[in-house]
Amino acid sequence: MYPSDSDFFGSDSDVGFPRGDDLDFLDDDSEADEDRPQDKRIAELSREDIMQLQFTDEEAVYRFYKTYAMIHGFAVRLDEVKRDSDGSVIMRQIVCNRAGSRKEMVKKDERIRDHRPLTRSCCPARIRARLDTKIQQWKVVSFYEEHSHELVAPLDVSMMPEYRTFSVSDKAQAKNLHDIGIRTCHILGYLAAQKGGYANLPFNQKDMYNLITQYRKEKVKGGDANAAISYLRGKAGNDSYFFGKYTLSNENRLENLFWADRTSRIDYECFGDVLTFDSTYNRNVYNKPLVIFSGSNHHGQTVVFGCGLLLNEDISSYKWLLETFLEAMGSKHPTAVVTDGDLSMREAIKQVFPSATHRLCAWHLHRNACEKVKNSGFLRDFKQLIYANVSVEEFEVRWEDMVARYNLSSNSWVIQTYEMRNLWALAYLRDQFFGRIRTTSQCEGINSLIKAYVRKKDTLLEFINNMETVVSHYRNNERVAEFNSKYTAPVLVTSLPTLEDFAAKTFTRKMFREVRKEIEGACAMNTEVVIQDGEKLYFKCNVFGVPEIHHVVEFDRVQGILRCECKWFENRGIPCMHIFACLKHQHVEVIPESLVCKRWTKNAKSDFMKSNVDDPSDSDKVLKCRLGVLGAECSRLMDLACKNSSDFVEAMNSVVDTITKLQKRGENPRNANLDDDCVGDPLVVKSKGAPKKNSKFKQQRKCSNCGVTGHYNKSCPNAPN
C-alpha cells in the first residue's frame, strides 16, 4: 500500500509541495465537511473527488497533480495549453511523464553513444483544468488515472529524477566539506550516515558529483586564473601584510605565482635563518611545479614561509621565485638553505643567495640511494655516514672503507654523490647552523599532508584553498605546543636541578627535552682541566668507562663563551653534553647567555610581535569569535530541538527561513572585485624527467575550443556564450 502524502513532505520547502494533511492550495472558504474532497487527504481522493476540485490558479493545479503523482509513484510534466486573445492561459493539461513516445534518433544506424533507456510508453494518465471566467476559478474538466506502465514502489520514489533534490543544509554541508579538501565520495558517505543510510538520501551519487562539479565551475566562472588572482587580491585587501606576485606570458596567461600571508612573513622574520624548499610536488591540474618555502619554529615544528607555482623548472623560473621571495621577506637572506638537489635550483641559489650555505636534503638523498644501489648493508652504512658527527679525516676513512666493503668503486651514482659530499655530509657542515634541519622540512610529513588535501585535478583556486588547509594544520600544531610551553611545567629529573630548571623556564618544551638529554649525558662524564691560558680553560671530557674517546672544550671565563670541538651548538643551537660537563665542573648554575639560542626560547616570536608588527587584522579575530559563539548556540539549539518532533519542525523551519533570508541578502557577483585586466589560465606543463617505468600513460584530451588540456569545450572559460 502506498503511504499517505504526509510521509513525503518532511522538507516541503525544498520541493515546493504542500503539507500532506490538507489541500491548502485549493480555493475553499466554506465550513468543513467530511464528505467534501477538500477535507480528504490526497492519497484518499477518488476520481469523482478530483473532478469536483477547484483551484485558485494554474500553479495550484500543477502542484496538486505533482503531489498526487509523487504519492502514487509516477512523475508529471506540463503538456497542452490554451490561451485567450490576450495571451492569458485559460486551459492547462498535465500528463504523466511517460506519455507519448520517442520519435527522433531511435532508428539511427550510425551512433556513437548507446541509446538512453526508454521513458515514454504512451501513458494516458493526465489531468486537464480550465479557467472558469465567471468565478475566476480553475476547474478540473478531465482526469484519467489509469497508467500503461508499472508504478514506482514507495521506497523507490526518491530515486526518480523528478523527485531527487538537495536541501539547503545538504548543499551547504557538501560545499563546506569540498572546500576543505574532502573527496566527493566521502562527502556522500558522510551525508548518508547522517540520514541513516544511502536509502534515505533524497539524491544519488551522480547528483552529488554534478552538484560539486557545478559548484567548482561557479567558483571559476570568470576563468581559473582570474578566480585565483581575485582571491589573493581579496586577501591582500583585508590584510596589509599579505604579499602576492605573479607573471604573465605574451598571451596574457598566468606563468609564475607566489604568495605569503601575514603569519608566514612573521615566521620568516623569526625563524628564517634556515630556509628549506622542495619542488617535487606537481599536484594541480596544470602540472605546475609547486615550491614550498618552509623552516623550523621554536618548537622544532614545520612552518611554511610561502608557496610558489612555476612555469617550469629552469634557472630563470627559480631565480624569479627566489628574488620574489626575498622581496616579500624584506631582503632578509637566509644563512643556510636545504633543497632537494635540483640542478637548476642549485644554480639559482648561488645567484640569489650567494652567502648561504647549501645543503642537500638527507631524505631525498637516501631515497635516491635506495633506487640506485640495491644493497641493504650499503644503505644502512650510508645513512649513518650522512649524520655522523665526525671530523673530515674520519669521514674520508669511513667512506673509503664502505665503498671497498660493498665493491662500489665503479658505481657512477656513488662517485657522483661523493663529489658532492660537502653538500650533504655532516662532517663538512657541522660548523654551520642548520637548526636541527637535515631534510626539506620533514618531507615525509609535508608529502602526506599534501596527498591528503591537495588533488591532482584541483583548479588553481581550489589548490590555493587546500594549501591553506595544509598550512593551518601546521599552525594549529604550533598553537598547541605554545600552550603547553607557557602553561605547563616539566618535572625535574636530572642530578643538576639548577641547570635543568633554568632550561625549563627558558626553552620551549620540545627544545627543553633535547637540552635535558644533554644535561643527563653530562652527569655521566669525566671532566678535567688540561690547559689554563689566562682566563681561558681547556677541558678534556670523556664518557665514564670510555676514556679513549674524548672531546676538548674551550671556556672563556671573561666573556662566558664555551666552544666544543664536536660543534653541536654551532650546528643545532643546543649546548652539548661536553659543555654542560664543564659548567658542572665550574659550578655554574645557569646557562650562559652565549649558549642560549633565542630561536629556541619561549619568547622567540612574542618579542618580535610586540616591537615590530601591528596586531593582525581585527576582521580575522572577529570572524573567529563569531564562529565560536554561533557554533556554541547551534549546539544548544540541537540539544533542545531534537527531543521531540514538534520542536524539531519549529527549529528547522526557523533555521531554513533564516538561511534563505541571509542568502538573498548576500547575493552579489563573485568576481566583482576583479581588476580590468584578465588573466588567462596557464598551459599544462610537461614535467621534468623520464616517465616512471611500467606505468601506463594515455594522451590527455584537449579542449576543442582552445586546445588546452584540463577542461572540455562545454566548460571552456574562453568559449562564446
Number of spatially distinct domains:
5
Q: What are the low-pLDDT stretches, counting only 5+ consecutive residues below 50? A: 1-22, 667-676, 693-698
Strand content: 5-15%
Helix content: 40-55%
What is the C-level CATH assignment of the largest domain? Answer: Alpha Beta
Structural class: alpha+beta
Domain SWIM-type: 549-587
Biased composition (Acidic residues): 23-34
InterPro entries: FAR1_DNA_bnd_dom, MULE_transposase_dom, Znf_CCHC, Znf_CCHC_sf, Znf_SWIM
Keywords: Metal-binding, Zinc, Zinc-finger
Summarize the structure.
A 7-stranded mixed sheet has the order 6-7-10-9-8-11-12, sandwiched between helices. Strands 1-5-4-3-2 form a 5-stranded antiparallel sheet.
Structure explained in plain terms:
With 721 residues, the chain is an alpha+beta fold. The protein has five domains: 5-158, no CATH class; 168-219; 224-361 and 439-477, 2-Layer Sandwich (Nucleotidyltransferase, domain 5), CATH 3.30.420.10; 362-433, no CATH class; 497-606, no CATH class. Helices cover 40% and strands 15% of the residues. It has 24 helices and 16 strands. It has helices spanning 12-15, 47-51, 58-72, 168-179, 184-194, 205-219, 224-238, 262-271, 315-328, 343-352, 362-372, 376-387, 392-405, 412-419, 426-429, 443-453, 460-487, 497-506, 509-522, 568-572, 577-585, 606-612, 618-641, 645-665; strands at residues 54-55, 76-83, 89-96, 126-132, 137-144, 243-248, 254-260, 274-281, 290-296, 302-309, 336-339, 357-360, 525-533, 536-543, 550-556, 561-564. The strands form three sheets. The chain has a seven-stranded mixed β-sheet with strand order 6-7-10-9-8-11-12, sandwiched between helices. The protein has a five-stranded antiparallel β-sheet with strand order 1-5-4-3-2. A four-stranded antiparallel β-sheet has the order 13-14-15-16. β15 (550-556) and β16 form a beta hairpin. It is elongated and about 120 Å long. The model is unreliable at 1-22, 667-676 and 693-698 (pLDDT under 50). Keywords: Metal-binding, Zinc, Zinc-finger. GO terms for molecular function: nucleic acid binding; zinc ion binding. Residues 549-587 form the SWIM-type domain.
